[in-house]
Write a sequence for this structure.
């Protein structure tokens, strides 16, 4: 699904790379969380997969397409199969829930009419299924900007689902939510990942949440992979390797977590 080799990403003339990954493979159907301290390179890794940053060197292959050598149309084809979820939701606040979710079909229904809101029946059916799947049918005609943060992130999940994605990339999808909503959104993401057998690759600020909701955890520090294993292998000592002895207070609460779902 995703293969990274000898990847190096730098911003400007910074001495050290923001990301330096020798080798990383994500298989289809995996549910992976990337953790690490602020500045570790989590967002840079996700941005590299989206094609938003140009690496200095290395290879990124997604769905069999080598991103750095691909033509524009090949990259567009891969992008259409990647659903994106952001910390700040990135919805059109004045548009309704329904219209936002329909936007997930824009990549497929690229005809001019769809730009003016006329989508073919098949696209409308797929978008409506996504609205129902995230439990927002009752709010479908409400403006997205009037919803709570948790509801807005559900809209973003539905919009991603409407793409029928092979890969969902989520950069800190619950950092703007209170703990209860954060758990609900991660539960939803886990459910849709399982139900659609898609691949979920997300960055999470809190290791506790990664342990509870991911099946594989990748720890980044200074742009390098310093941990890659199942949730059970994330112990206090492996956490020290990722966070350098900092941030471990967050982990103390992990007794309350009953393992991966
Ligand atoms: P994380 O998401 O784990 O907090 P980032 O990927 O945002 O980390 O950042 C990795 C490193 O790259 C940090 O040192 C950060 O300061 C640097 N960085 C990120 N974005 C930019 C940018 N647009 N310009 C310059 N440096 C950046
Ligand atoms: Mg980040």
């Amino acid at each position: 699904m995703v293969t990274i080799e000898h990847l190096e990403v730098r911003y400007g003339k910074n001495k050290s790379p923001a990301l330096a990954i020798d080798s990383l493979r994500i298989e289809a159907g995996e549910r992976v969380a990337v953790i690490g301290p602020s500045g570790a390179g989590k967002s840079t890794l996700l941005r590299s997969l989206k094609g938003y940053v140009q690496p200095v060197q290395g290879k990124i292959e997604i769905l069999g397409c080598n991103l750095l050598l691909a033509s524009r149309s090949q990259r567009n084809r891969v992008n259409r199969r990647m659903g994106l979820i952001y910390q700040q939701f990135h919805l059109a606040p004045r548009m309704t829930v329904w219209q936002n979710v329909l936007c997930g079909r824009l990549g497929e229904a690229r005809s001019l009419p769809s730009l003016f809101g006329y989508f073919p029946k098949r696209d409308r059916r797929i978008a409506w299924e996504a609205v129902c799947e995230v439990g927002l049918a009752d709010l479908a005609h409400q403006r997205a900007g009037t919803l709570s943060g948790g509801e807005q992130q559900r809209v973003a999940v539905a919009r991603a689902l409407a793409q029928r994605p092979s890969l969902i990339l989520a950069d800190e999808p619950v950092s703007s939510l209170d703990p209860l909503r954060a758990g609900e959104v991660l539960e939803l993401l886990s459910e849709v990942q399982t139900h659609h057998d898609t691949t979920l690759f997300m960055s999470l600020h809190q290791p506790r949440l990664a342990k509870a909701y991911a099946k594989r955890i990748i720890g980044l520090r200074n742009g390098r992979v310093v941990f890659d294993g199942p949730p059970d292998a994330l112990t206090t000592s492996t956490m020290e390797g990722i966070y350098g002895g900092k941030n471990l207070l967050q982990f103390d609460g992990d007794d309350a977590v009953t393992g991966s779902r």
Remarks:
- The chain is about 35% helix and 20% strand.
